[in-house]
Design goal:
Blueprint: H1 6-26, H2 29-46, H3 51-60
């Protein structure tokens, strides 16, 4: 599977989060349409079928992401 460049993924995440805020504020069809387009692009770029899964997958591919979640481990 081809992998998107981390800079592209970071940009898509930022766009989606911004559009989600705008949609919550005014709910315009244009913002919703753009949000759907960005969500689709995220899904294609990460090989997922769900927006939430795409956001998680994209964040894991960014520099500095930890490969394992060790938040439940004790020191």
């Amino acid at each position: 599977m081809l992998m998107a460049h981390p800079a592209v993924l970071a940009n898509l995440i930022e766009q989606y989060e911004t559009l989600r805020i705008l949609h919550a504020e005014d709910g315009s069809p244009e913002v919703r349409r753009r949000m759907d387009d960005v969500a689709y692009t995220l899904c294609v770029a990460t090989g997922t079928r769900d927006t939430d899964a795409a956001l998680i997958a994209a964040r894991h591919q960014l520099p500095g992401a930890r490969p394992q979640d060790d938040s439940l481990l004790t020191a």
